[in-house]
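haha ok so turns out i had the wrong file open the whole time. this is the CORRECT one, sorry everyone. sequence first:
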Amino acid sequence: MTEWEIIWQQREIFISGFGNTFALFFAGSIASFILGVTLLYTLENGSKGVKGSVILVINMMRTLPFLILAYLLYYGLPQAGIRMDAFTAGLISLSLYHGTYFCEIFRGIRKGLDSGLMEAAQACGFSRFKTFTRIIIPNVLLRSVPLIANQLIICLKDTAFLCIITVGEITAAANSIQSTYFIPLNAFIVAIALYWIISIAIEQVSKITLNKVQDRGLSHA
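then structure:
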């Protein structure tokens, strides 16, 4: 039996790993995106103390390796009486970690917006919430499509670290097969291909979105 035949026989392990990776990536991306927008809103409209706390959390996350965060949630919290399964710990760690990075992306774009947009909104009697949802966020998102796509790919790659906390994703599947049948090259070639599939899909969606934004004249970057 050839090495590739072994890989084919064990395809269910890869299929399961691919499913777990995609589920983690999809749910984590949505949660982190929402968290990033929420943090930006807090920085826009929160009190001075709340803003300071948000900035502190963001800075902490930026200096904390993702793997350490996953370790803390899965292995550290049980000492405080808080237990969760590996998938949940992985999802929460992805959401928290990349939510702060999304906020930083949005905050950087926000600083580059023309102040006249906000002045015009105030002159029209827009509330802070209305100004944020109808003026700030649409402009920020339209200008940050390439950065969002890049962060999503980083989020995808970070799912590979979760095999350390026993999440059965793509890397864990490849490692399981290579340790059992001693075919690391073949196993990890398949893993790389599966990551590429998702990454290419992200890039294509990003390009289509960016083209539509530019075609409709919505991008002023």
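Residues 3-215 form a domain with the MetI-like fold fold (CATH 1.10.3720.10).
again sry for the mixup
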